[in-house]
């Protein structure tokens, strides 16, 4: 029952995922959540670390597309300086936003990876869309009001998954 919430990988932060790691796994593009994955939910300006990571991906020819449940104006303000494409109102965990991003990239699900900090939306949705995924720790320990409810249920699901899958451990990268 909880297998639809199981991440493919668990990595401490999106910034620890490298182009070489992705290429070894046949991954040609990154789909990513916005809040608490790329940027802190309460700081839409991002960090130097984020800019460096995005440049590494661009230089390696790996496009990054934000797939977020946020409205377009919120995402645009956060990502336009990084020149990232995005899908707004993705309705995660439905597959709608994932399919829209896949179509924009003209790639197959096996060429993509979804990175997110929530198993109830990002991981469950990616699994439903047949896309490998990476659960990352949230950038900050606080969340917007709408995410706090999910976090309560996520703790219970993660506890169950950890018992069933002792290999589910946080790592410093995909290797």
From TrEMBL:
CDD domains: HAD_BsYqeG-like (cd16416). The keyword Hydrolase applies. One of its GO terms (molecular function) is phosphatidylglycerophosphatase activity. Keywords: Hydrolase. SUPFAM superfamilies: HAD-like. The keyword Hydrolase applies. This is HAD phosphatase, family IIIA.
């Amino acid at each position: 029952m909880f297998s639809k919430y199981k991440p493919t990988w668990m990595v401490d932060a999106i910034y620890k995922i490298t182009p070489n790691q992705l290429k070894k796994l046949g991954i040609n593009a990154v789909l990513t959540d916005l809040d608490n994955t790329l940027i802190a939910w309460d700081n839409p300006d991002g960090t130097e670390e984020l800019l460096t990571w995005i440049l590494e991906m661009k230089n390696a020819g790996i496009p990054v597309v934000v797939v977020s449940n946020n409205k377009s104006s919120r995402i645009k303000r956060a990502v336009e300086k990084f020149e990232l494409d995005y899908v707004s109102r993705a309705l995660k965990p439905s597959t709608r936003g994932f399919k829209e991003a896949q179509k924009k990239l003209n790639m197959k699900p096996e060429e993509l990876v979804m990175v997110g900090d929530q198993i109830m939306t990002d991981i469950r949705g990616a699994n439903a869309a047949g896309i490998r995924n990476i659960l990352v720790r949230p950038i900050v320990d606080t969340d917007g009001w709408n995410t706090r409810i999910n976090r309560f249920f996520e703790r219970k699901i993660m506890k169950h998954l950890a018992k069933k899958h002792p290999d589910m451990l946080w790592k410093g990268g995909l290797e």
